[in-house]
Design goal:
It is a single chain. The protein has helices at 46-58, 77-85, 102-112, 126-133, 138-148, 171-178, 197-203, 207-216, 290-299; strands spanning 14-18, 63-67, 92-97, 116-120, 155-162, 184-189, 220-221, 232-235, 242-246, 259-262, 267-269, 278-279. The protein has 326 residues and is α/β, with parallel strands linked by helices. The chain has a single domain, classed as TIM Barrel. Strand 11 and strand 12 form a beta hairpin. Helix 1 runs parallel beside helix 2 (77-85), helix 1 crosses helix 9 and helix 3 (102-112) runs parallel beside helix 5. The longest helix has 13 residues, at 46-58. It is globular.
Length: 326
């Protein structure tokens, strides 16, 4: 039974757990100058992750998304997936990756217990992909996706951040891609963070404009799953694939929030753009602190705000999305 409920009646079956702040891509909207460690990159160990997962599962959380930075930079990623899969009560184990290791590792991840996969693919065009990410890996990642489609994942989703003047005219290419592939592409509206003010002003594009465009092309809303993320998903009878729209600036975007976040250093974040975090790591060092850990997590839900402050330009303590897993 899920006992994680905030003061607005929202339940939280879904945890986004960052495994590392490091990322090897230089995406223009996140880490254009690359990852710069602060000299103290001591991220959660696999034992600490196991204790954390058991505590959240004890509170009824059943969906875990492993994020970064780039989680595949951790050499023990497959072991972490296996640890997650062995945790009683967890039914969905998802991974968000930039795809750098996808072709080489996806079968290993699936064998370890991974059930869902999200891959960041901001463009299907090789040149545009390189311009956005700083890496000429588009063809390799697309090969990895084709392999993943044969492995029986519950879901495969591709994430594309909408960027004015960089990838905002690629819909037709995406539609060709979706016609015969059983996956979803999710177009994500660029979000303002602590260090991208000028970039945001130059590249931001209203996701609802794209949503109206696909509706006019005959795409229709699909029913929302109980523990789904924030995307409004659309289907079309002529396409095997689906389209999702994530519009964080849309009205009532936060009213169905169902996820919490834990950073790679063990801090609980109630909101991606919140003003504070709650340290959990002191209670992750030994199994003896399990009950205290469960109590600390449960006690924080009353502090969760109704929504973010992005409309007012308030980005909280998030400097960039890699710092907390998006």
């Amino acid at each position: 039974m899920n006992t994680l409920m905030d003061s607005y009646g929202r339940l939280f079956p879904y945890l986004r757990l960052s495994l590392t702040e490091a990322c090897n891509f230089r995406c223009t909207y996140c880490l254009p100058d690359g990852y710069r460690p602060d000299g103290h990159p001591v991220f959660l160990t696999r034992a600490e992750i196991g204790r954390l997962l058991r505590a959240f599962a004890a509170l009824g959380m059943d969906k875990i998304r492993l994020t970064g930075g780039e989680p595949s930079l951790r050499r023990d990623l497959s072991a972490i997936i296996a640890t997650t899969a062995a945790t009683d009560g967890i039914r969905t184990i998802a991974l968000t990756t930039n795809g750098y290791q996808l072709r080489k590792r996806v079968e290993q991840w699936r064998e370890a217990g991974l059930t869902a996969l999200n891959i960041s693919v901001d463009s299907l065009d090789r040149g545009r992909f390189q311009r956005i990410t700083g890496h000429d890996r588009c063809d390799d990642i697309r090969q990895g996706i084709e392999t993943a489609l044969t492995l029986g994942f519950d879901s495969i989703k591709l994430n594309a951040v909408l960027l004015r003047g960089l990838n905002d005219d690629g819909l037709e290419q995406w539609l060709d891609y979706l016609r015969d592939r059983d996956l979803s592409v999710r177009f994500i509206e660029l979000m303002r963070t602590g260090d991208n003010r000028e970039y945001f002003q130059h590249r931001h594009l209203d996701a609802e404009m794209l949503e109206r465009q696909i509706q006019q092309a005959g795409w229709r809303p699909r029913a929302r799953a109980a523990n789904a993320g924030p995307a409004r998903e659309y289907g079309h009878p002529d396409f095997k694939g689906r389209i999702g729209i994530i519009a964080p600036y849309a009205r009532d975007f936060c009213k169905d929030c169902n996820r919490l976040r834990v950073t790679a250093r063990g801090d609980l974040r109630l909101c991606l753009f919140g003003d504070f975090s709650i340290p959990l790591r002191p209670l992750l060092r030994t199994d003896a602190d399990h009950e205290a850990l469960v109590g600390r997590i449960a006690a924080q839900l009353g502090l969760k705000a109704a929504g973010h402050g992005l409309h007012q330009g308030h980005t909280g303590i998030t400097p960039h999305l890699a710092s907390v897993g998006g």
